[in-house]
Amino acid sequence: MPSTYGLIDGNSFYCSAERAFAPVLRGAAVVVLSNNDGCAIARTAEAKALGIKMGDPWHLIRERRELRDVRWFSSNYPLYGDMSRRVYQVLAERLPRVEPYSIDEMFLDLDVPGDLRRLCQELREVVRRIAKIPTCVGWGPTKTIAKLANGIAKDHPELDGLCDLTDPLVRAGWYERLGIGGVWGIGRRTEEKLAQLGIRSIADFLALDPRMARDLLTVVGGRVQEELRGVSCLPLQLMAAPRKGLAVTRSFGRPVLTWRDMREAVAAYAARAAEKLRAEGMEACHMQVFLHTNPHDGSTWYSAQRSARIEPTSDTLALIGEAMRLLPPLWRDGFAYAKAGIMLTDLVPARQQARMFQTRDPVRSAKTMAALDAVNERFGRGTLRPLATGITRSWGTRQQKLSQRYTTRIEEIMRATAL
């Protein structure tokens, strides 16, 4: 395991991705909205200064006079995902190991010769120059300390985006000042439980007897305490652990009233789930389909789901077929449906050799799906798709403020024009 871990985190990552292709946004208040343009999920410092809070509903705040100059954007996940990939690529070329933790955070192996502060500053600069994303970097002897250091770097502008917690004396000073709720792995309920015992700062938590910490917070709490003491318990993961399930669920951009629209939507979700399976080299053995109305708008509530074992597969056409078999018994005329989804569980590694009682040709399926994925990878997701998933997709997610997918759609790439 490395003796020094780092964590690099993109500042207001979604907003920074939007700014990367629109210099006019630099210095402006920018907000990115959740699916269906529901609420604020990312804000620049300028937007925060105007009082916009995480989770503020867009339909309630967009008409406020003091917010008239705010630039609002619908979530553009293809763009954000590709920008995250670019950040990873920049880091992986310069460090022994990099572990993506989330779309905007990556753990770093900093066991490299030279001055760590200078290295981390250079990493920030090269990510900003090449990937156009501003970042903060924190580092220390464990992952938990590195994540804490990153939070300090973000919250204290005087540190210029860098925080070094490798020195035990420096850590002790911060531990006295910081609340235990800011530690990775300590949730709100755990924080409340500890507060009832008079444990409010990180220093208070470290003073707790290790056996009591484990009794109160199970083995996870004991591990957090050890990590905060500088004992590494969480190694870098170069490969993500195989997932046990995945889901594709969406709230509709408008209520779905017809069977045709519902059928198209669920088929599209099954197709997306198949893409995710193939990307991870997995097949699903169990499927659940669900749908429901809006529980908050006063309409009649209706919810239904159905699940079944399926033949192990990641074939788009096969999964659409299974979904279409499960969906009809769930449908009821006369309801305004707000959401539907596909959940796949009991995932297993993909195999191309025949299984007993298999009804599909695995080799033919693999070739067909490889061709489908190759076309969509080259020309953009959805370029080639089954007709069952719809053409116009009037039920799709509402995105009134969507920016261009500058890096993943050839027709939306930026064009240079002569002056």
UniProtKB/TrEMBL annotation:
GO cellular component term, pick one: cytosol
GO molecular function, one term: DNA-directed DNA polymerase activity
Reactions listed under catalytic activity: DNA(n) + a 2'-deoxyribonucleoside 5'-triphosphate = DNA(n+1) + diphosphate
Keyword Zinc: no
GO biological process: DNA repair; error-prone translesion synthesis; SOS response
Top EC group: transferase
Keyword hit for Protein transport: no
Record key words, sorted: DNA damage, DNA repair, SOS mutagenesis, SOS response
Domain UmuC: 5-187
EC number(s) given by UniProt: 2.7.7.7
UniProt similarity note: Belongs to the DNA polymerase type-Y family.
Function: Poorly processive, error-prone DNA polymerase involved in untargeted mutagenesis. Copies undamaged DNA at stalled replication forks, which arise in vivo from mismatched or misaligned primer ends. These misaligned primers can be extended by PolIV. Exhibits no 3'-5' exonuclease (proofreading) activity. May be involved in translesional synthesis, in conjunction with the beta clamp from PolIII.
Subunit structure: Monomer.
Protein name per its UniProtKB record: DNA-directed DNA polymerase
UniProt source species: Teichococcus deserti
